[in-house]
Each structure stands twice: as structure tokens, then as C-alpha cells.
Amino acid sequence: MTNIPFLKELAQKIHTDHKENMGEVILIFPNRRAGLFFRKYLAEYLDAPVWSPNIVSMEDFVGQYTDLQVADKFTLIIDMYNAYRKQITKDEGFEKFYYWGEMLLKDFDDIDKYLINPKHLFTNVSRQKELDDTFDFLTPEQQEIILSFWSKFEVNPSKEKTDFKTLWDKLFSIYELYTNGLKANGRAYTGMLYKSLAEDVSVIENCDKLIFAGFNALTTSEEAIITYCAEEGAQVHWDVDAYYVDDKRQEAGEFFREYRDKNTLGKTFSKPSPDNIKAHSAERKITLNAASLDVGQVKMLGSQLAKITESPDFEPEKTVIVLPSEHMLFPVLNSIPESVKALNVTMGFPLLSTPLYSLLTSLLEMQQSAVVKEGQLTFYFKPLLQVLKHPLINDHAPEEVRTYIAQIEQRNQTKVALVAEKQTPFFQLLIAKCDTVHELLAYLNQIIIMLFDESDRELDSLEKEYAYQFYTQLNRIKEVFLKDELQLSITAFIKLFTQIITSHRIPFSGEPLRGLQIMGVLETRNLDFENVYVLSMNEGMFPAQGSQHSFVPYNLRKAYGLPTYDQQDSMFSYLFYRLIQKAKNIHLYYNTVEEKGGELSRLVQQLMMESGHQIEHKVWSPEATLSSIEPITIQKTAMVLQSLEKFMVSEQAPFKRLTPSALSIYLDCRLKFYYRYVAEIYEYDSIQTEIDPMVFGNILHQTMELLYKPYTGKSITPEDKKLILSTLKEVIDQAFLTHYLVEDADTFAYEGKLIIARNIVNKYVKKIIDLDMEYAPFEVLGLEESEGYGLDLPIESGQQVGLKGIIDRIDQRDGIVRVIDYKTGQDDKVLTSIESLFDRDDKKRNKAAMQTFFYALLYVNQNPDATTVVPGIFNSKEMFSKEFDYHLKMQGEKPTQKTPVYNAMPYLEEFKSRLTNLVEELYSPEVPFDQTDDLKKCGYCPYREICGR
To answer: What does the alpha-carbon distance between residue 203 and residue 225 come to, in Å, rounded to a whole number?
Structure first.
């Protein structure tokens, strides 16, 4: 198979036909890239120095015939906005207009490139007579489409239709005002240049020296320019194949068949058409690769590239990877085998996919959340933490960042108050409050300079490039804002910033003639490769999903000859077929997952059904074996037993004490106890924006402690109720401040669910007070002493294990001591036996009862003279019922037999015995730390990921 690339054929012809006057020849290509490859091929035919032909793109060729300069898009949309405001009285901010401005600019560009009379287009034509008088140049079919469209606006017009007609009637005035203003300032959009030259083609000189090559899907203005030049002696070379040009069923040849039927352009087509697709089908190998998701395609590509690059005949310059979807670029780059020493990327990468974009948007959200209240600057925690946890910020000042993150999360701050004077210079810049858009632009630029220009770390070329692009764009926006005096709020600017950045790409620079090529679909025009790898061959990706963001509805675009997605489909079909028409090895990849657009492209299906090519179909299915989850068992080695000594009573060193919660965890799952209390793997602390049961319980306990603290050692009587209630609001506020570690009450505000939580706490506390007043008078003996009540429990080894518990409240009346535990959950007060409290296989094991008996044991241990100790639970589940009873209840043989526990003393001996057995098991070398068999307990376990449960 000796297919010669199109540009190489052209170079050979130019060398043959213009060997003596090559320097006078002007070659015009659709883009600059084709010119680079043409020079390479031309050099292969030269054996002596010669003057090179003048090689230009079509846009450069057209641009030399005007003094107007194509302005950048942002400037063009600003000018459009100024023209729009003069014609439309509706007050619309620039940030809202920007999207419509982009759309209008594209429409105006199409109107000019396709030489459409804007006055005709933007006229509401609803009657045949109007068409006959002015629009006689339209075909009957076009006239019917226009009448059909506008007639729908005559009957019962909706508000939307009325608004559309109102705007439509102004569009020609906006067009005139806009284009005249651009010309007056020496500016233009591309379509204006094409229209200007197409309407006065006589200014083009030396047409016999011009060669147009590789064009397809010409705009009307391009067609007019090329037709004129061809009439005056210019050459035109088409990059086509008989397979799709000569077959009327093939949409890829639609444009070329139209040009071939025209008098002038028809003469420029070679007869017969080149036949590469059919003629060499037996020598061409096409493989269709099916894979799951994007990652599957990339993995498959990497594997196949690794094989081909091992061959000594491999020439990377003859290989191309085509990416219809730009988001695949970095996954593909990471999959390129190390054997590929050089590659060239010829496609842009969107700025919105860079780390800097995510940081800047987080900074903008942080600024949006900033509030100054009574001189105090506060930020909402979510965007602030997004900024602090961002890799770019973390890399710049890791120690400072970790300190602030820990402080915010430990204090559970949702509104974070920061004082600039107390921060380092880095954080002073980061938390600066911006009040205007100009301040915000300067702020963002300073951040970029700090992170990239003043950074100590070494930056790679991509980081430098996207930092430069953002810096340039921000300065450009600032420059235009200052010049045009646009007034925007910060919120409006944030919307605008996102819209502007969305359309920008990072242009990759490299050596286009060296190495393996990575390209977008449009970049492949006129280029031929032996090895072609095309990813994302799914419907909606290649061809791209048909969409026409335009003010001009589809029917009117079709009637007036403006491009529609029908032409887009034809163009993508052509690009697909010309990619394969001279290739030897073609690999097409597609995603098979339906939910992710897994429908094979119709272009591939056409190729399979119509071309006659033998196509090998491979399905990539990675070996996926589910490994069985091995049980985790921690044996009590000498090291583990040594770690358990931390709970042994010792006079030489400080020791820890086991709580009832720890022992309850041990009963639930020995392995969970090991992770939490032996290995000391703690749960991650995150900010809680919701009041979960644990937080609510902590605040309730704190409130009751603060409320009764002044009465410790004193008697509370019903007469004290009024005084107690008078301090309730202040006490609840203090409980919230204490829980959230807030030192300054002025910086704490009740918002959202905190208001609801405060009201519920208030309701619960009042109910407890009511119940207490019914029981009063009583003496408060103790309230959640921080050190708690301790017990040195002897075990069989002769050592003692430290136990402790912090009892919510201990009170006394008439010699009866109550050990009270507040519960905000659904805790039950019924138990079947003391034995059941230590039965880990009992799914209804009463943890609350075990904890309360534990407290009773601790109290009796320190008060051996006690005769009556009543364990009680104030639980929210029953507290508001008329029959509320705080006593624990022992279940009898019958369900109705529930005997209140008026005194724990008769049960404590058994309780202590079973507690001792449990602790001895904990220290037994023969009993390992293993997993529970009850998987329901694993549902909310923080260690379930470690266990694989």
C-alpha cells in the first residue's frame, strides 16, 4: 500500500510545475498547520536552495485586503453590548448579556460569511405579498419555510413570542450600529473581512499565482473568493475520495458534489476522483475496539501503542491519536508508553479543567460569602475550607493551612471570623475583603503571582502556561472594564468570569513535525497518517452532538442558507472518511456503557455496512475478580498486651481508665475496640452543619450541668423553679458556645438549624425541670465531674484495671441516692437480666441499662455506706408522656411483668462479677481482637472501610 499523503502529492506537483518560479506562488490552506506539513514534504523534493512559496491560511489571505484588525472576543462583545444598550431599553447587566452577546456575535459572523442580507433576515415576513415584492431571490421552498415560521406568531402569541418579535425587530438596527462602530474604530470580527473581500473580489491581484488547497464546506464568501480567483487563473486542489464524492448516499461528499456541479469550480475537480478507500481496502486493517467508559478506552489505547512502538519500523510521525473529546487529553497523555520519546499535542486544553480555575472559583465563592458585621469579617466555612484544602494553597503554606483547618473543624465553626492583623502576610492577602470588581481583579492577580511567580517550588511548563493565561485574561478584563467603565457587582462579575473562562483554551506549543501526534478532529484536516487511533467513536461525540446556539431559529437558518447542524454532520462525516482514506492501520474506540452515551457512532456503522471493509471487532474486558474478604483477627502479641497496659493501675506512670462506652464497644466488636482504644485510630473530625443526636446530647448535658451547678451540695425546692428558669436562656447560650469552642459570644450567631436546636434544647430542659420539681426537694450531690468516678478493678492476673465514668447527675432525697443519665435517643429502660447486659450475641442488649448500672457501681465503690442507689434514665422517648418513670425495669417471665429497679444494690455483686469476667477476657492472650458476626453493627462503624465490610 503506497498511498501518498495529500500534502505530499501537492508538494510534488508544485515542485514539478513551478520549479523555476516557486517563490512567486502563493498557497492558501484552510489553516496554518497544513502549511507546516506542506513545507516538510516540499523539502523532500528539493536538491538545491530555492525561494519558498508564500504559504498562508485563508484568514491571513483575506486579512491582507483590509485595514481592519480582528479584535479579541471580549472586546467584540463589549462593543456589541454598547450597541445593544442603545437599541434595547431593557436594563440588562453585562454579565447577563455576555452569553447572548457570544451568540449574537456568532450569528453576525455567519451572516457575513454567508453573505446574507441582514435587513432581509431580520424582517418579520408573514405574508406572501411581502415575499413576492422583496424576496423574489428565494426559491418557493425557502419562501414556504419562512411563511410557515412567521405565521405561528400571528395566532394567540405568547409572551415569549411577543418578546422574541420585539427583539427580532431591533436586531438589524443593532447589526448596523455594531458593525459601523467597529469599522470606525478599525476593528472587525472575521466574517466582516470575508464579506468585504467577497463583495469586491476585483482587488485580488495575480490570481494566476494563487493555489487553494484542501478546502471543504466553504462559506458563501469563501466560495465567491475562490470562484473569482479560479476564473482568473488560480488553481484549486481538493482533498477528496471517490467513495464519498461519487456516491450520492454519502453525506461526506455533499459539499463537493455541489461544487462539482458549478461551472467554474466544477472544472477544478480531477476526473476521475482519486480512489483510495475502495482500491486499497484489502490492505487496510481496521479494528473496532469496545471498552467500558473512557478509562477502558485509554487503557486499551495504551496497551496497543506499547505493542506498535516496540517495532523497529515504528515511525511516530506517521501515527496520530484523534480525540473528539478534549477532556480525554490528560488521561491519554498519561497512557502513552515510555517508548514514545517525542509527541506533539495539537489541540487546546480548557482553562476550566485546570487546578487554578477551581481555586479561583473557590476564592470567588469565599468572597461572595464574606460578611462584615459590627466590624468583624466572617466567611462561610465551606468555600473557605475549599480554599485552604486546595493543593495549590496547601503546597504554598502547609503548616499554616493545617493549623487553620484544624482550628475551624475542632471548633465546628460554620461562620469563621478572621482578623487580618493577626494573620501572616500570606493569610492577610488570602482573606482580604474585596468590595469592588477592580479590587477583586487585583486580588485574584496577586494570588496568582504569589502562587506561581513568587513560589519556591519548581513549576512545570503546563502550570506556567495556565497561570499566564489566567493572569492575561484577568488583566484584559480589567483593562476593558476601566476603559468602558462597566459597573458590575461582585456577584455579577463571578457569573461573567465563569462564562469568559469557559470558552478559553490553553494552546499547546511543540514541534508539530516531530513525534507522535495528538489532535482534535478539526486539526486533522489535510493531514494523512499511516496509523490512526480515534477515541470516543460514540454517537454525540463523533459526529459531535448537533446543536445550534443561535438567535436565528433553525427554519430561518435553513431558508436563508445559513449553516445548520445538517452541514455540521456532513463536515464531520467528511473528516472521518478522509482520516481513513490513506491510512494503513486504523483503531476506532468506543464506550459500551449505555448510561454514559454508549451508542456506537453512525459513521462507524455506515463504514461496517457499506464500505466492504473487513473490520475486526475487539471487546476489551479487564479481568475483574472479586477477592474474598478475609476475616481480620489481631492476636494479642507481646506488643499488643503491652499497649493494653495503658489501662492498668500504676503508681509509676499516668494511666488511662476504661469507660462504659469503651466496654460496650468491646462487647459489640472486639476489633473496633482494638482500632479505637489500642491502636488509637481516631475518627476524622468534620464540621457538622446539622445537629446530629450526639451533638444535641452533648449540648443538653452541658446545659443541665451549667443550670444546676450553683446548687451542688445544696437542696433544690419547688420554690427555686422561677430562679432556675430565669437563667435558662443564658445557660443554653453558654452551652452552645462551650460546645463550639467559641470564646467571644459576639462572633457566634444562631442561624438555620441552630435556632431549631436551641428551641428543642429549651423544651427538653424545661421538661426535666418540671419533672425535678415534682420530685423536689432533693440535694444535688454531683454533676458530670470531669475526672469522673473511678474504680480499680482487680483481675485474675493480680493487677488492677482502671475504670471510670462521668455520671450526668447524682442527687439524694430521704437517704435515697439517684444516679441519673440523660438520654436524647430511643434508649429503652427494660432489661431481662444482668447477664443479658454482657451478652454480645443478644441483639437487644440494653447498653443504656449497662451504663447506668456501671455508674451505680462506681458510686457505691466510693460510697460504701450507701444503702439505696437508684439507677435512672431521663430519655426523650418517654419524658413527655404522663406515665413517665425514670426507673430501670427488670423483665419478668411474662411481657407484662416489668419490675422497677428501686435499688441497684441487690444486683451489683453479679454486675461486678460479670464486669470482671469481661475485663479479664479483654486481657486474656488467648482471646484475639476479631470482627463481629453481626453485619448490622458495621453499617455506621467508622472502621468499616478498613475491614472491607
So the answer is: 11
The greatest distance separating any two alpha carbons of the chain, rounded to the nearest whole angstrom, comes to: 124
Q: Is the dihedral of CA 11, 16, 19, 20 positive or negative?
A: negative
Which long-range CB contacts under 8 A does 642-648 form with residues at least 24 apart? 643/678, 643/679, 644/678, 644/922, 644/923, 647/801, 647/802, 648/799, 648/800, 648/801, 648/802
8 A C-beta contact, residue 716 and residue 778: yes
The stretch 635-650 carries a mean pLDDT of 92
655 contacts 792 by C-beta, under 8 angstroms: no
Per the domain annotation, does 1 fall within a domain?
Answer: no
Q: Of 196, 226, 244, which residue sits at a domain end?
A: 196
Q: Is residue 645 part of a domain?
A: no
**Residue type for position 175:** Y
Print the domain residue range for 138: 70-196
334 — phi, psi (to 5°)?
A: -75, -15
Spatial contact of 623 and 617, defined as CB atoms under 8 Å apart:
no
- Range of weakest confidence among 161-170, 405-414, 626-635: 405-414
Contact, 799 vs 641, CB < 8 A?
no
pTM of the model: 0.71
Q: Is residue 276 part of a domain?
A: no
Q: How confident is the model at residue 311 (pLDDT cuts 50, 70, 90)?
A: confident
Same-domain pairing of 13 and 148: no
528 and 418 share a domain?
no
> Is residue 452 located within the same domain as residue 584?
no
- What is the C-alpha separation between 597 and 593, in angstroms, rounded? 7
Q: In what order do the strands lie in the sheet with 376-380?
A: 371-373, 376-380, 415-417
Give the residue among 182, 215, 218, 177 at the shortest CA–CA distance from 198. Answer: 218
Q: How many Å apart are CA 657 and CA 646, to the nearest integer?
A: 8
pLDDT for residue 143: 65
Contact 280, 3 (CB under 8 A): yes
Angstrom distances, CA of residue 807 to CA of 819, 851, 864, 875, 906: 7, 10, 17, 15, 20
The single residue listed with the C-alpha cell 501572616 is 424
For residues 792 and 904, is the Cβ–Cβ distance under 8 A? Answer: no
Output phi, psi for 800, to 5 deg.
-120, 140
H helices, E strands: number in the chain? 37, 30
pLDDT in tens, 418-438: 665 566 777 788 888 888 888
d(CA 247, CA 254): 9
d(CA 278, CA 74) in angstroms, rounded, equals 47
Q: What are residue 99's phi and psi, to 5 degrees? A: -60, -45
Q: pLDDT tens-digit profile of 794-812?
A: 999 889 999 999 999 999 9
> Is the pLDDT assigned to residue 409 strictly greater than 80?
no
Q: What is the pLDDT of residue 129?
A: 47
pLDDT of 125 higher than 60: no
At residue 942, the pLDDT reads 87
Residue 802: which H helix or E strand, with range? strand 800-805
Q: Are residues 799 and 901 in the same domain?
A: yes
CATH number, position 44: 3.40.50.300
3-state secondary structure of 45: helix
| 217 plus 245 within the same structural domain | yes
For residues 699 and 572, state if they share a domain: no
pLDDT at 137 over 90: no
Region 481-492 average pLDDT: 72
By C-alpha distance, which of 771, 778, 772 is closest to 884? 771
Instruction: Collapse the DSSP code of 47 into the 3-class scheme (helix H, G, I; strand E, B; otherwise coil) and give the result.
Output: coil
Domain shared by 520 and 500, yes or no: no
Number of structural domains, the chain?
Answer: 5
Q: Compute the mean pLDDT over every residue in the chain, rounded to the nearest whole number.
A: 87
| % of residues, the chain, pLDDT over 70 | 89
Calpha distance 61→55 (Å, rounded): 9
C-alpha cell at 472: 492575561
Q: Would residue 445 count as lying in a domain?
A: yes
Q: Are 358 and 481 contained in the same domain?
A: yes
